Write the structure tokens for this entry.
Amino acid sequence: MNLRIAITSCLSVVLFTGCSDSSDIIATPEQQTLTLLVTNDDGIGAPGIDALVNGLLELDDVEVKLVAPAENQSGSSDKTTEGDLVSEDSATASGYQGVAVYGYPADAVNVALEDLGIVPHLVVVGVNKGHNVGPYAVTSGTVGAARTAARAGYPAVAASVSVFPEYADYDAAVILVTDWIKDNRDALISGSASADTVTSFNVPGCTAGEIRELVAAPLAEFISDDDIGRWFKTDCSLEPDSPPTTDFDALLKGHSAVTDVPLEL
């Protein structure tokens, strides 16, 4: 029973049976609004964050707060700016209103939490143009923003796709994020969701075939110079000869990967 129905029912019987105090009517987690803070490292006008915001707005009973860098800040890790920051009202490519911060992705998170007083249940970062796997996670502004949020005690999710526009499947990344939110909504609302690590999704850029199922995989410890860039596009029609062992290996084999990223890299 939702709150409105509960109150109406209570009023309808008050003359006959009385009514309990309104404090007895407690909304379930499904009825509470989920506050989501969205940021990225590609800038507020990038296509990935636009796709993400629009996808999040399709969820039931959510409030989306948008605070993102004014300009592309890829590769900035969790750097922050000393001194005051300039911010201004801005919007995504499709017009969702938010705040643009002239600084790094981690700066945008700090402005949202400290200056704007936003108290999110979850911080969502992306969708980034360019995968953030293995040792490259440490330089990622996307993962850096998520790590900054988690270090402040807020659960954080990051999502990344191929750097090549023709293979950048933003929709697939958004589905992974929204499914994760649905699965973890109760824990997020109750405050029991973990902020000990960052949940990082990477989606392969399939040149052929379909994206394979999501696999949980650790960060690759090493990627050789010869392998740099190989994960950006993949023939997903080829049958893998073995299960993925790392996030990098998962992309090479056409799988989306979900990885628990430590807060300190």
